Amino acid sequence: MKKRTRNILIITGMIVLLPLWMWIAWLCTPKKKMVIAIVDKTEISRNGQEHASLTWVLNNERYTKTSKRSYNVGDDYFGFFPQKGENFRIKGLERFTPQQLDQLSTDAQAVYFTDTYGVYSNEWYAQKNVTERSGIVYGGMSKEDIGLLQRMKDKHKLIITEFNTIGSPTSPDIRGQFEQMFAMKWTGWTGRYFESLDTTLNKDLPHWLINNYLREHNNQWPFKKSGVAFVNDQDEIVILEAETHLAEPVPHIITSNKGQTIYGLPSSMKYAFWFDVMQPDFSVNEVIAHFKVDANEAGLKLLKEKNIPSTFPAITQHIGKDYKFYYFSADFCDNPVGMGSSYFRGISFFKFFFYDSSDPMERKSFFWNYYRPLMSNIMDQLYRDR
């Protein structure tokens, strides 16, 4: 009995001390300098959620901005910086001269555009009616952004972009330059899964989405279940409802064998947030993962009427060694993850404590099972190549 009690005490002590050992192991991990230019124009809080997932990976893997200084989620990016009250600072690439863009493209090993959608007056000044459209405070890809991307491409540096890099409010001219530069085209369609399409229950449904659909369909909104909403740059709306149009309500990312092998990704992963429908030029790009909207016959008919595919790219990668480019066709970097867990080495072994995969709207599982291994492997390859 005494031996059993002693063993229980030893095991309990080990469990209690485990976080301390993991933190010490993280502290003892050598730092790796990696200069990354992060662009985020949609950050409305100091927690940096729009780019926190990237900063988490950099911190956990011990990539640093300088030989000593780690990346700070609230400071180390270009874009919109919230201050106290309604004050803010804009520290984007728009203030850079061509010479400064040259220098940045020389100093940085990579550039990552996490979001250029921007900040709008309702959510910033009124801080209400966020589901209504309003005037823009700051946002959209600029000619300086394109200038940096061109310089990074010319210098064979790593370029990562994702939704919403070239969608609204980016001008058609800038969008066209991006599409030509990276041999891909936006179809104009974006989409998102909603847990409930019932307007009386889900107050987060965008009012503009509802109003545009009502205008097109004789003021009728028949949806009550979950589903996927598509909207294009002409404000056309397509709604696919669970059971009525969808066999499986939540879109899934299906990853190729190459993606599973090289990046350590699962074969299938649910995705319940914003995405866009892109058309890459397959002569210079390859799709290593694609979205699948599991539409039934009625759903496929709706999609066909608007020329929306039921499968479309999720991760597009450039083929060849002349430059390194990825486009993630969704808000990959926007996940509700806290920075605290990034200070523990081996924390991914305990990832199941951080999410509930049975919840269809739960997005933390995407970070732990998809984004984290994807970016860890991309950064590791970049560091080894350098």
Q: Give the helix tally.
A: 10
- CATH class descriptor name of the largest domain: Alpha Beta
- What is the end-to-end distance? 58 Å
Question: Which stretches of 5+ consecutive residues score pLDDT under 50?
Answer: 7-11
Give the % helix.
25-40%
Largest pleated sheet: 10 strands, mixed
> Helix/strand-derived class?
alpha/beta
Give the beta-strand count: 18
Number of domains: 2
CATH architecture identity of the largest domain: 3-Layer(aba) Sandwich
Summarize the structure.
The chain is an alpha/beta fold and 386 residues long. The protein contains 10 helices and 18 strands.
Report on this model:
By secondary structure, this protein is an alpha/beta fold. It has two domains: 1-29; 31-385, Rossmann fold (3-Layer(aba) Sandwich). 33% of the residues lie in helices and 23% in strands. The chain has helices at 2-28, 49-60, 98-107, 121-126, 143-154, 172-182, 207-216, 257-263, 297-305, 364-385; strands at 32-33, 36-40, 63-64, 78-82, 88-91, 110-115, 119-120, 136-138, 158-162, 184-194, 227-232, 237-241, 252-255, 268-270, 275-280, 285-292, 311-318, 324-328. The strands form four sheets. The chain has a ten-stranded mixed β-sheet, with helices on both faces. The protein is globular, with a radius of gyration of 22 Å.
Give the topology.
Blueprint: H1 2-28, E1 32-33, E2 36-40, H2 49-60, E3 63-64, E4 78-82, E5 88-91, H3 98-107, E6 110-115, E7 119-120, H4 121-126, E8 136-138, H5 143-154, E9 158-162, H6 172-182, E10 184-194, H7 207-216, E11 227-232, E12 237-241, E13 252-255, H8 257-263, E14 268-270, E15 275-280, E16 285-292, H9 297-305, E17 311-318, E18 324-328, H10 364-385
Parallel strand pairs: 1-3, 2-4, 2-6, 6-9, 9-18
Antiparallel strand pairs: 4-5, 7-8, 10-11, 10-15, 11-12, 13-14, 13-16, 16-17, 17-18
